[in-house]
Write a structure and sequence with these properties.
The complex is a heterotetramer, with two copies of chain A and two copies of chain B. Chain A has two domains: 56 residues, no CATH class; 220 residues, 2-enoyl-CoA Hydratase, Chain A, domain 1. Chain A is built from ten helices and twelve strands. The N terminus of chain A is likely disordered. Chain B has two domains: 41 residues; 248 residues, 2-enoyl-CoA Hydratase, Chain A, domain 1 (Alpha-Beta Complex), CATH 3.90.226. In chain B, the strands form two sheets. In chain B, strands 1, 2, 3, 4, 5, 6, 7 and 8 form an eight-stranded mixed β-sheet that branches. In chain B, strands 9-10 form a two-stranded antiparallel ribbon. Chain B contains 13 helices and ten strands. Classes of the chains: A alpha/beta, B alpha/beta. Bound molecules: zinc ion (2 copies). The site of one zinc ion has 8 residues of chain A, from loops.
Chain lengths: 285, 320, 320, 285
């Protein structure tokens, strides 16, 4: 056990890159089509001040939406994606990684940390969709597993907020195996009797949905979430079926018993504080 | 231009370059090395792609074929007890070398009518829930479990999503991590994505020589990353999805040889090899106590992944 | 002739008989006893039937009403993770007297729109599977479990049968026999058949004074045995389905008093009584170790039944 | 523990009453409408020699269909139904019981015994539909529970062949409670690692279907079985739905994943011998 890593603490290493796509003063809302002032959107945690549509949140924005002020301590392991297959399509994987790191200011797509929510200590893991679609490779598998280990060891509830397109296909079979790896870590969490709340946002799909995100004690869908396993296009092409208009929406997931609750973004923090208040953490039955 | 043409052209160019160097006494070793690497990379494409095509060969033995050849008796069980019976997954109790085992596998069908009924092995939630039920039965009675993987992937359809295919796969994985009896997995044909992995959480994972196992189909990968499904051969090579690749990457435990030309040319020979390997691994696992089996299996998969450390390069295997 | 008329007529006859005996000095005690028993038997019909009607009163507090009144907070959980969310069963986590409990109950709805959405508390497979999931969650975290029974019965429909409602009820019963935390059941309204029992396997079973609990609805019983649904009042009496009956028969542990006129006239008073009883029983059960709880619960239900022995009359209770 | 009961053995107490409904030489087949010679039907285990339709089997006929010759030893407890509610509808319950006993020659609807099937020792329980619809009251609950106790103790597989309309409503709440009682006994069977094969015949419905009959390790439907929880009439009346033609048939149960297999009556014995051969009885994993 590399306990040493668990002890490592440093303040938020998530840096919001102000250049590039994040730089413009105004941003166009996909909901109402209006140009809205970016700063206003940010203040409102990525909710359009005109129409209420949700913008993507960065990992940092998601964290600051959820945790008690200044309570977040990044405990992500100091690892970045390797290129175990030497994968190249039109561009080498390592180049894509570098580009994603530069664009997001993040070393990888997963941020995990200790935090407090309504003064309850939690271990929080967040994935950032901007980083290669928030896809799960060896790094995400390792970060989430270590996060669950910390939660199990410290008897702190584990909260996962997913925003992911699924597997990091550039890591091939290793990407697939993270589905089992995270499930194995979740097993230890269960044995430690520590609660796990899975929050699914836009999008929670593919391999992450078909593994760790579906294994929560409680499953919460953010309003506007996309939740499902297979992609719409694949389904249409394979089956020729016409998809219903609410297909794979959060309402679809709720109606089909896949999630416990649907929550608006602005109420998500209160929701998590509330649900965590019910769990007698660390009590071993 | 086909990949074969491209390779021929590159090899012509190489020959010219070598001739040029010889005749003119110039050092072109850097150029030659670059070209050779390119040829190697590109020609791996067809080889990987050949494997994928072999893995998908319409006459390739299916799970039921292997059960016929390997088992003295197979008692099929049906139904998920919830809503349906998915023919894309078969399972039940079987007698293997004098012992009862629980078996589960994807089933593609052995003729067009069966292919249709089985959806070519693309299972839905009912299939994975039946699988979990049968593995649970095996576990209750202390029976070793053998699974056979042969699917292009889980079935992508409206009803599958309505019935929470994602949750069904997750639950199947989670269930397999809990089993207290030995689990040996054999990838016999296509190992397509989460739909394959859902019954792939074993203490040992074997692969037939011409099977493949991949996070995504080569076509799907090519469509997304190359923007062209036709580049599937290149994607197949890049994904490193063949049995030797995966043995090399440490994700599987053994490659089971097939007869020359592939398993479909001599199914009995393929089954003989598979039998020997299954038996050997089951014998090894029989020595392990149940609680320790669960721990080992958990550690095996906890250890899978390769990252680049800020301070060190970690090759995570066998629970660090 | 209504039952009330019949009773009046019989009582007139009794009075005449007594007068006749007094005036003529004849011993008619046998005839009088017979008539009195008949009156008692018949007049129990309306009384039992009154209880059934009270148990079904449209304003009677529902599970959600009691959760409002009893719990400091109720966090509802939804969905069976398999296909749907059945509104005829509600469940989740709740705070009861400073402690977290897991709660599950039938929900009939509190107005016509809700009644319709909840199917008047007639749950289908998704409801019972959600219930099992929530109880499993409670069990994992060592939370006591409280269930509220209020259903005319499981929903009789094509889809319910397609989704194996029988198996869902059986699994829910089997699941409750496995729970390692205290389980207290409260029958708050209608306790209709297997659909009620599916969430009724408790260490303690309480019943509100005007609730009923029966193997079949009085109407169903009357239709089958009397050939006339209109004889439901007589069937209600014969089935011995009232709370005092069931206490007498040893099937429930306590009758929780309702305010005069029924729980709907003063829901808070009813909830107060229920709270006191729940708390008392949970306190008692907290002292029992988990493994022993499971054994006691199993023995409790193993012991239920009354047979006539060839050699002896056995009253089987408490595991013999 | 009344172990003494378990030791009690006596040869088949099932007597086939030759008078009454069983007396006639000829019987009308519901399948083809022909009058067929009763003795021929009996020889063929209740299968119509003309059209293959199934007749009801008595408990004795069912047993002799399934077990090795002369291997059945009745271990039913010497109990009969009581009348705990003093139940009377048009007729007193006790009168109905007496009538059923006289007509069937059985003390009650359930026969349990030790037997051999293909030389494998089993504990077999059979319910007889002629006896008040094979409905489950306290006696059936007790007989089945004791049978499972014997199976658990002797590590013999348990085979239940159901033919029942459901609950014995004349025993009211006690009848309902047998659903839990039998499930509790089944739990002990599971703990002893003893297999349980549930065979559902025409009909397996109501409370028996919704408890013990659904809790087998393997579920087998006899061809022609009726399997379901609610009655057809109740469903039609409650929902106004038109029932599909195969509703609650054995094919319906198979298609909906409710049973593992459908087996013809004449092949049922071989089927049971085969399935039992897979279970390593009494091995504790
Ligand atoms: Zn907007
Ligand atoms: Zn006929």
């Amino acid at each position: 056990m590399k306990i040493s890593w668990f002890r490592r603490q440093q303040y938020v290493q998530v840096k919001l890159d102000q250049r590039g796509e994040q730089g413009a003063l105004w941003v166009k809302c996909a909901g109402c089509g209006d140009l809205v002032f970016r700063e206003r959107v940010r203040e409102k945690h990525g909710v359009c001040p005109r129409c209420g549509a949700y913008f993507f949140l960065t990992a940092q924005e998601r964290i600051s939406l959820l945790v008690d002020e200044d309570s977040f301590v990044d405990v992500s392991r100091p690892i970045v994606a390797a290129d175990p297959l030497g994968f190249t399509d039109c561009r080498p994987y390592l180049e894509r990684l570098k580009e994603a790191q530069d664009r997001t200011g993040l070393p990888n797509e997963t941020v995990v940390g200790r935090a407090r929510m309504g003064n309850t200590p939690v271990v929080l893991a967040v994935t950032d969709f901007r980083f290669i679609g928030g896809s799960m490779g060896s790094v995400m598998g390792e970060q989430l597993s270590c996060a669950m280990d910390i939660a199990a060891q410290e008897l702190s509830p584990f909260v996962l907020v997913s925003s992911t397109g699924g597997a990091r296909m550039q890591e091939g079979i290793f990407s697939l195996m993270q589905m089992v790896k995270t499930a194995a870590a979740r097993r230890d969490l269960e044995r430690a009797c520590v609660p796990f709340v899975s929050v699914m946002t836009y999008p929670t799909t593919g391999g992450v949905f078909a593994s760790i995100a579906s294994l929560g004690d409680v499953a919460i869908a953010e309003k506007g979430a996309l939740i499902g396993f297979a992609g719409r296009r694949v389904i249409e092409q394979t089956t020729g079926e016409r998809l219903p208009s609410d297909f794979q929406t959060e309402a679809f997931a709720f109606d089909h018993g896949i999630v416990d609750r649907v929550v608006e973004r602005t109420k998500l923090r209160e929701e998590l504080i509330r649900v965590l208040s019910f769990f007698p953490v660390g009590r071993s039955p | 231009m086909t990949i074969e043409d491209l390779i021929a052209e590159l090899q012509n160019k190489l020959a010219e370059l070598r001739k040029f160097a010889r005749e003119n006494g110039r050092d072109v070793s850097a150029e030659i090395a670059e070209l050779e690497e390119k040829v190697a990379r590109i020609s791996w494409g067809p080889r990987a792609w050949e494997q994928v095509k072999l893995a998908r060969h319409p006459s390739r033995p299916t799970t039921l074929d292997y059960l016929d050849l390997l088992m003295d008796d197979f008692y099929e069980l049906h139904g998920d007890r919830l809503y349906g019976d998915d023919k894309a997954i078969v399972g039940g109790l079987a007698k293997f070398e004098g012992r009862t085992v629980a078996v589960v596998g994807h089933q593609k069908g052995r003729n067009p009518a069966e292919n249709h009924a089985c959806r070519y092995g693309m299972a839905g939630p009912a299939g994975y829930r039946k699988a979990a039920r049968i593995m649970g039965l095996g576990d209750r009675f202390g029976l070793p479990i053998i699974t056979f993987i042969d699917t292009p992937g889980a079935y992508p359809g409206i009803e599958a999503e309505e019935r929470n295919i994602g949750g069904a796969i997750a639950d199947s994985i989670y269930n397999m991590l809990r089993l207290r009896t030995p689990v040996v997995v054999a990838v016999i044909g296509e190992g397509g994505s989460g739909g394959a992995l859902a019954i792939g959480v074993g203490d040992r994972v074997l692969m037939l020589e011409n099977a493949y196992y991949s996070v995504i189909s080569p076509e799907g990968c090519a469509a997304i990353l190359w923007g062209d499904r036709g580049r599937a051969p290149e994607a197949a090579a890049a994904l490193r999805l063949t049995a030797p690749d995966l043995l090399d990457l440490g994700v599987i435990d053994e490659v089971v040889q097939e007869p020359a030309g592939g398993a479909h040319t001599a199914p009995k020979a393929a089954a003989r090899n598979l039998r020997e390997a299954l038996l050997r691994h089951l014998d090894e696992l029989r020595a392990v106590v149940p609680g320790e089996l669960v721990n080992q299996r958990r550690r095996r998969f906890r250890g899978m992944g390769i990252c680049e450390g800020a301070v060190e390069t970690m090759r995570l295997r066998n629970g660090e």
